[in-house]
Records
---
Amino acid sequence: MVLLKHRPPKKRIDIESEQPYIQSKPIFALTGGENSQLPPIEIEDRCYSNGHNVYLFGNKLKSRYGYEPFGNGLPLPSIPVQFEQFYAYDGTEYLVCFTEKDVYHYNSVTEYWDLVSPNEIVHDCEDAWTASADVVGSQATDWFRYGTKSAKFNVQDAFTTGLVGYINLAAPIDLTGYTYLHFYIKSSINVAAGKIQVVLDDTADCASPIAGGTVNVPALTAGVAKECQVVLPTPASLGAIASVGIQLTEDLGAMSIWIDDIKACKCFTGDYLSRFTVDTIYDDDAGELKYVASNNSDNPIYWTGTGNWAELGGSPNKGKIVFNFNHHLLILNTVVSGAQAPQRIEWSDLGKPTVWTGGASGSVNLAATPDFIVGAAFLRSQLVILKETSISICTYVGGVNPFEFEENKIKSIGCAARGSIQPMGETIIFLGWDDVYVFDGFTTKGIGGNVKNSIIDNINPAKLAAIHSHIIEELGLYLLFVPVLGSDYCTKAWVYDYVNDVWYGDWIFPDNITCTGFYQNAGALTIGQALMTIGTANFRISSRSLGSMSPYGLLGTSDGYIMKFESSILDDDGTAIDPYIDTKSYVLTDVNEYDVVDEIVMYAKGTSLLVHASDDDGQSWVYKGTITLDSAGTTTYLRNIKHVAEKHMFRFRNMTVGGWFEIAGYDLKYIKKQRKQS
């Protein structure tokens, strides 16, 4: 008998226990934006904990675009503080930049920013100058700013110091009403400040230059033309200038100097915090459309689109804010007899911006509460006046007393910064003291939401006047530019989607952004095409709603540059934009479990994404790899990242010049692991 040996059954293999199942956590449409109010582990899946230089459009998270210099001849010699675009009745458009000292008009043909401040030509440098010994003078065509020539001096090595060259003026000119000398200059070598001087003289041949009219040329870089504006030491001594010249205070050896378009200017007296407000009004007496501006430091000025800006007639008081309301020019928060009257509003006669007494002109003090007027904006047919801790309403009723005022429409909520105010049609957005608000004419609502504390707690309270804002209509975005703690200038903008009521985080800039604006070529659009009369229009003539194309954004910087800010530019004047988000902290397991995120599937397009991971809510990060993207949006993978933790937070970033991304979503592939019991 043969005994059969017992064989135990084969062991059954449990696939799920031996080869754990890969699970999925898909995330699409980060429509919740940034939530920095809650810990990263508590926010919704549709939010991210930290966002820089990104926004959402079409349910896709995108890196912001960049900027580059706009115009020739930059930088300007003083800080840009305001951009405005005006339209004449015939459709002619004017792009204007106010700086802390001057005002410029953009010449779309030459692409130069032309000075249109109150000024007088001293010499246009089109005529030959007289050169000193060991200097060869000429009328140069190899470089000039205006006209067809500049004055050029080839200084020989034998020349040491003193007068290089001069020209006698056709007739003496009185420059006592001007405060600065403005000119364009170029050197063939690097020159330190003060080594070249421009001199004015009340005698012929610059025989005895006036000390009060001698200015030091700023430092020059070899071969680089520079626009200069230098304070005149003693304007009172410049009543009969007969000649102008150039001199050297140090032996610089052989070199060439070019100079062009010397002007005396009457500059503004404010600084970069003395922002302008600008509006347009038709002057019935003069029969012309006037562009009027005021900055509270200087008398109100106006322009008609030709020549230079000039002081507005009728001796109106200085003020911080100007508005055209139903054909009356209003000035708010005015200066009366040299003293600030921060609750006062004054208005001109009907259709007469130079008539401030009699007729339908008048004034009022909004003194029901002690707070000051900060700013104003139109809301439908009314002018909303935002004070520090209240909101009042101005209504047009016509007649000799044309305005009615409802004080304290809103109490205990006011505006912290005039530059934050943006009219949105049916609402007004503004920065309050504890939140960002919208006002609809009846009530206010805080909209700071998930980033309120991040905004308020990080603003430099000493520089509220530096705050400004910008609307990107085609993206539905409100940008609030703020100076952070310790900074005098704005390097950060908080980004609010006013269509979807979502904040996308902040945009960080490598330059100090001093102002924003827009520019668009609206073609032959006329005021008549707006289907509204000047007297009843509730928008400014400069409103972008009159244009036919989406505008370029404009940025001013503290070093005098004007930048074009638009979607085709992928870096900040050569600096990487560095967009990124930090996701929420994902907990993918149950009690007594941990997990391994092994793979990220990225649904995106662009150039590339750096991926970092954190298991401590973003306190520290570990690089996990780079995902290479393409412009077609091909699905890409980052495999074998092996992030082992109880919670997972990821950073998706691009730090390369010209880099960009557009993220539709991502999928975290992970494996659950059972924690061993001791």
---
Amino acid sequence: MMMKKYTVYTLLGLIMLVTSVFADESKWLAVGMLHDWFSSAGAEIEVGRRHLISDQQDGLRWPAQFRYQDTKAAKALWIGTTNYQDPISGQTYEYKVVHVGPRVLDEENEFMPVEFKLVARFDHPQVFVDGFPASPLDYMDEVDEIDPDLPADRMIYNVVNTQIGITVTRRIYAFSQQNHDNYLIHEYIFKNTGIIDKKGTKVEKTLTDVVFFLQYRYAPTREIGPYGYYWAPQSTSWGHSTMNDAVYADPLNGNPLFRALFTWLGRHSKADYDLIGGPNIGTNTYGGDGRLGAAQYCGVVTIHADKGPNDKTNDPNQPTSTQVVESDADITYNNDPFNPAKMAKEYAAMTAGRPAQSHAELVGDGNADEYGNTPGGFTQAQGFGPYDLAPGDSIRIVLAEAVAGLRRDSCYTIGARWFEAYSNPSRQIKFRFPNGQVSEGTYSDGTADAYKNAWVYTGKDSLFKTFRRAIDTYNRSLDIPLNPPPPEQLKVIGGGDRIILEWANNAENWPNFAGYRVYRAIHVPDTTYDLIFECGAGTDHPEIVNSFEDQTAQRGFDYYYYVVAFDDGSTNDVHFGVPLESGRFYCMTNQPAVLKRAAGRSLKDIRIVPNPFNIRAIDMQFGYSAPDRIKFLNIPPVCRIKIYTERGDLIETIEHTDGSGDEAWNSITSSRQVVVSGLYIAVIEVTQDYFDPETGEIIFRKGETAIRKFVIIR
């Protein structure tokens, strides 16, 4: 892999990429409703996955089935110590700090990956639409290892050595069970191994006043900003108007072991309306509907932090520092582990303590982007320590990161009510608040904003409830009730008058298995899905089946599906009696299923398109999602298509049996080879008599054939 150093500068919302040494690898956790990507380096730098400016907000997506729900701009992990005699430079530093993020990454010399893998309890299913792979998990769930005893659905395992001699081991757990699918549990083990470089050089020494400093630059959400639909000010995309708050005890019961940082979208001076929740007021090219595009609350809760290397009890005084960091401060770029002055400033930020007032309290009801006179806004941060670590000593820190808030349908209905008032400022409208109170008022008198904001602010309670659930999950060793596994395979086939779904039966061996459910969306996959079929106990179809024919589909529309297995609800310890479902993303299609055209009426009408097929013109054929597709149109409802080379070699046989007049071929031979340029011959043979369903007249006779020639250019 090509090695280069990578640095990103943010100034007034513009990112400049400057050459500097990297070779990072990334992996997704994408089986629950919260999706996020992770770097082999130990933290996720700004635009670090694809290194594109358009990825200013990338990751921590919730609810992930909808487009542009990213809330993360950057992360960082710094490790600092004092009075460090550096074996590399030969100097002694009063403060030594090594870094990954928020803008720097040096996997050759500073944070050096040793191991990075995605472990799964089971692999993701195979999902096909009309014979073609159609699962987002094909590229977002690249499993390296199967462990059937894994307590979570997925775990990222990452080991990184650092120039300071501390080895970082992190495990990140993800669940698809519906009560636990919007948080990720991060377990860090920081061990003084003395390994300081990629060669494995070991320098044993005691490290003093060690601080582990994590930064979280949140920016809810991509949907509202320039890399989404762009109805909010540009600088929301890098967190300029986010509100950052912290609590050091559970507001529900005063538990001092509940320590959380949390963030939401605040007001912005460049928006001439109240930006709380990110309501869609429309643009010149995108219609306004009021929907709340940034109603999410995101944050991180500390579950456990060792008191010391010899005292593994949970320290309620950790993290010791929660002072926010100015996102564009000089300490956030050009970090250098051999620059004494800069490392002293960094260490000071890492040990700044807990502020008397949080960033959100200081902003108050004002515009978050105007606080502090900074173009970048502020980043959440927490420092753990200081610890003294002798050779072989280690510290364990466990965190849970989560996103919660209003349901997507509520974002539409609440936003639409607000938008009605916004569009008619003097109209008297009745608003129902979260506490059940109904108030009549207008946009002009502030009632509409109060209504919208009251609903958005319920996201804080939802986030805290998620935090409590994550804490409980970790304290019970991740032993939560498991949901049934998904079907190992799903096939969706578009026919002439119906769309057929067929799935595997492996889930039926699961204890307390009860049945299957089929959900469907129309037009696009990133929208709400409706339950259109269920089978099993307590349903209108008590018999267990492994297929369903969607006969309500209409020609000309795109349909997307997901299929889940569900149990009898007896193990659901959050909502007892409510069935647990297998994760929706396992058997979700990301390619449309459509009704195919009716069968042809005559062999002379058979066409092959495109003809010629030219790989350089895929955007004029079936698009980049199907670059090698060739279609046979107006064919008999049941026939066999044999494809030959010009010299007569049979390279593929397709059995067409779905009753439609369409069949697709992906230019792959029966020996799994991509065809080369040349002239090809297709022989279409009728394999079953076909009669007109209305007149009874025979249209195709078994054995009849048609021959067509087509050209492929590559």
